[in-house]
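P.,

For your records, the input lines for the assembly:
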Amino acid sequence: HPSGALVTAELPAKGSIVLVVGPEGGVSPEELAAFEAAGAKPFRLGRSVLRTSTAGTAATALVLGRTGRWS
Amino acid sequence: HPSGALVTAELPAKGSIVLVVGPEGGVSPEELAAFEAAGAKPFRLGRSVLRTSTAGTAATALVLGRTGRWS
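Structure tokens returned:
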């Protein structure tokens, strides 16, 4: 259901970024509403659904690479 | 031993990119020479050494994100 792609998302250059990776079955509407109420923004990682364990590593590497937090 | 960081490496916008991830113990000088003779360029992924299984996922996500191959 997330509309934006993490690979092109606008990301803060400073401060902490918390990544929440859902299960293969997806995040429930109730969970999504709770995350968004807490300030989270939903993004999809790619065109395919990755295993949760792979998605966490991939999303972290993507964010680290895109924000200059990793060099 | 790789000098450049993958996160800032110049990457081709088109064509295939083949990632070779070494074991935790590192790539041997003989292996490195063979890869370089075949046209490979050595890069490090970050400041710390990742497990081989994690490094492959992380490097793939980083390259996909940096080259627009993933959206």
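Two observations worth noting. Residues 52-67 of chain A form the longest helix (16 residues). The interface with chain B takes residues 5, 7-8, 46-47, 54, 57-62, 64-66, 68, 70-71 of chain A (CB under 8 Å).

Regards
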